Amino acid sequence: xxxxxxxxxxxxxxxxxxxxxxxxxxxxxxxxxxxxxxxxxxxxxxxxxxxxxxxxxxxxxxxxxxxxxxxxxxxxxxxxxxxxxxxxxxxxxxxxxxxxxxxxxxxxxxxxxxxxxxxxxxxxxxxxxxxxxxxxxxxxxxxxxxxxxxxxxxxxxxxxxxxxxxxxxxxxxxxxxxxxxxxxxxxxxxxxxxxxxxxxxxxxxxxxxxxxxxxxxxxxxxxxxxxxxxxxxxxxxxxxxxxxxxxxxxxxxxxxxxxxxxxxxxxxxxxxxxxxxxxxxxxxxxxxxxxxxxxxxxxxxxxxxxxxxxxxxxxxxxxxxxxxxxxxxxxxxxxxxxxxxxxxxxxxxxxxxxxxxxxxxxxxxxxxxxxxxxxxxxxxxxxxxxxxxxxxxxxxxxxxxxxxxxxxxxxxxxxxxxxxxxxxxxxxxxxxxxxxxxxxxxxxxxxxxxxxxxxxxxxxxxxxxxxxxxxxxxxxxxxxxxxxxxxxxxxxxxxxxxxxxxxxxxxxxxxxxxxxxxxxxxxxxxxxxxxxxxxxxxxxxxxxxxxxxxxxxxxxxxxxxxxxxxxxxxxxxxxxxxxxxxxxxxxxxxxxxxxxxxxxxxxxxxxxxxxxxxxxxxxxxxxxxxxxxxxxxxxxxxxxxxxxxxxxxxxxxxxxxxxxxxxxxxxxxxxxxxxxxxxxxxxxxxxxxxxxxxxxxxxxxxxxxxxxxxxxxxxxxxxxxxxxxxxxxxxxxxxxxxxxxxxxxxxxxxxxxxxxxxxxxxxxxxxxxxxxxxxxxxxxxxxxxxxxxxxxxxxxxxxxxxxxxxxxxxxxxxxxxxxxxxxxxxxxxxxxxxxxxxxxxxxxxxxxxxxxxxxxxxxxxxxxxxxxxxxxxxxxxxxxxxxxxxxxxxxxxxxxxxxxxxxxxxxxxxxxxxxxxxxxxxxxxxxxxxxxxxxxxxxxxxxxxxxxxxxxxxxxxxxxxxxxxxxxxxxxxxxxxxxxxxxxxxxxxxxxxxxxxxxxxxxxxxxxxxxxxxxxxxxxxxxxxxxxxxxxxxxxxxxxxxxxxxxxxxxxxxxxxxxxxxxxxxxxxxxxxxxxxxxxxxxxxxxxxxxxxxxxxxxxxxxxxxxxxxxxxxxxxxxxxxxxxxxxxxxxxxxxxxxxxxxxxxxxxxxxxxxxxxxxxxxxxxxxxxxxxxxxxxxxxxxxxxxxxxxxxxxxx
Length: 1197
What we know:
By secondary structure, the chain is an alpha+beta fold. The chain is 50% helix and 18% strand.
């Protein structure tokens, strides 16, 4: 077997070397390779664009192709755009940019490569999207590359595009060799493309290591050597893990997103993938080691220190549980994951893998306790185990409290309850109900894991709430402060601004600041510009006071200002609920003060979300907080969904002390800022809603892992994969329910989605009709001719919480309620081409299309707009509410449906067992009866009153019992006759043997009577008489032996200690054997006939003594040991051994290997032992010796 392990290991190493060499030669990561792949993908898209351009003629049907988002086509006739496939390309200078002759240019906020084709008087253009370049980014606005370039999201910031030569830049050319632009790769760029074939080879090598380790342990007899292999394998895995992390090898693995170190701080666990691998290794090592460990339970030191050994094992389990808690705390705190799997929405692949890894780590606890109980079972009684474990858990609970460890009372209680349940399972219960206890243990493990993860997620949330509180107390916007630092550099470096201020042209300076220098796009701040000279004053309307201009600003900065880096800006913290910044600059005799005050975000969704630089909608690290600021017990400001009290005293808490409490379905954190100010941050209780539903998810994962033998194969009799009828019934029920729920969930989502879309479409049409009716009375809706229409559209937009766009019949934007969206280039100034076709060419009265701005998708509704003066236009409403409401409806439905499905799956697992038990119980009863059926015994019939298939089967069984009883009577009669015939033959044979010499001697005596020598006759007579007496004695012994075998005496069973009987029997042969060793475990009691047992032992010892050939120093070893509730008595000699061809006959009557005797001794021994309910057998090796063993039940004290 060691050879097999070596072959597997050698093959795995060869596979690893071949895989690594293949990856090095063909999948290396370097800039030249990246550039080649980039150009290859670009050229492939160019060929596709050229192929489509070649098909264009006088006109192009917009419905002829499924136009890609990253490949846009434009047609220009007589300097007028008449055809386009995507409205995002709309730009007032589009015609000029396309006809300029450049192959690479920026249109709006995106860089495009341009491919051309001229057909008659038409110029067709194909625009290949290379990269976005928005003025700023936010939650929905991100700079992405064209999808065909296959650059992942995390690499976007690592790739720069330049139209001019740059250092370390690589020139990108088109397929014709013409230069387009330069590309620069950052230091942290890496391609995600992993070869999954290579990945599978690496995984195969990794699994083969555990296979080899399992083989080695399985065929190692010495437990000390097994521990040495265990330690060596642990060190090898630790070294392999360090090597992989230090050198990020193999690259195929570390290109996977789950191995990104950005998920975590570099402490202990560096990534989700590392967490999964580490827990898998711990799990597999524990499972394999505990499955194969072979402890010598007869070791005197082990038996002497068994209590200390037991306590040490419990302490090691406790240390692992502490480590388990520590690991979960690290994972939750440092990784961007959410372990509330039942909520589904914030859960990604990383969260699911972390959840599975934590479950595997929890299973290690159960596996270890299971192995520990198996060890305890060999060394001490059930009561002793419970006492030792209870004492240790109480002690460790006190240790946890005293030293503030990660564990607490509940962790120790979990160790105790699992140990007790598994001990009850091993010591007291039958195997047919052990599985139920294992299921209960797994369910308790699921509860425990969920409680631990919830505890540490609650800690994380509280720490994040404290961090958020710090920001609110400081009243600072760190994102905006970065922009202020940039503005500071611009102001200090603007000579134009300095010139205008020094010559006294304040209006020009203010215009310059507002127009160019202070770019606040995406920031919700108002700006107040003030120029102060010596003697200038300010009138404060709020306090009705007059201040000196400079003195006022300097007083605010001096009292409440905190300087931002080395800039001229200060954050003003007065805890009034507002974020304020003041900038101070001196230009000669003039002081310039810039005041920025945060304003409330625009109401509504959609375009306001696009215009905001916020990365999330008021969401702080995954939690939606509400907060309130109180000054002197009065509410100053508040934000969020919770409606705060005007008086702080309404909370009923002491404002001078920090407090965390629940009220009105919210968790409130009360934080004293100073003697007069208090901050309250609140979080809705539904944040951790459904958390305990995770118990079912954890239970489901445990069952999946256990089903494939990773745990239950420790007990070979408990295997979920066995192909029994009961297992098939359970699997069928579970599979059927699972399939039905998948189908019902999919149908429910589909039908509800269609229903929701229908309702929202109807709502959008109603809004279109209302706006249409309001606008058709206007004389003009073209903002170029009547600018006041923009204000009218804005008013309607605020009233209806929607945005409104108006296009000409040619598809050009002429008016909008949100001009900045188009000015910043987030939306194109062309209408959706399909909507233009439907309304202008096909004459539909309304049309619904799907729109997209950045990453935000929405429903866009179109309708013809005809004014009272007869002019016609196209009215458009981007309906963003549909997207959020629809997604929310679907999410809620999916969460509810999936959680119900999980509940039903767990119930199905439990109920399927009950159903399968009920269905198979008659079959199991029939199976048990068939197992007990034997010739010569009383075979019982089965009582079953149901007239079904099983009933007919039971009826046939009962008929078979009747027929078998009849057959048994006939067979018994035949066997008795045959036995007596055989016995008569044996007796005749044994008696005939001495009769022959007796007859010959008597005949010899008759001839001697004719002799005359009387003395000789007398001498011969005495010799013959002695011989005849000896033969008669032999015949008497034969008769006695057969009598004993035919009718053994009645057993007189009693309870006695077997060690005393064994020692007494061994003394009888002490002087007849050169070396007789007696190793007997004391205190083992059995129920048997003492005299019959003595007879068996003496017979076996006598046979052992007689088997030793002359000239060999005889050695007989007697051992008595307790094993698995039974006693084993072994008698080993170093005699001749029993040949292979004679071993089957050794217990047959009248069979012997000796030159004398009747061969009844071993047959009698076998009959005695079997009458006691025991077992007797032997193992033998010719020329080495024979070992007989007796196994009997132990009588527990």
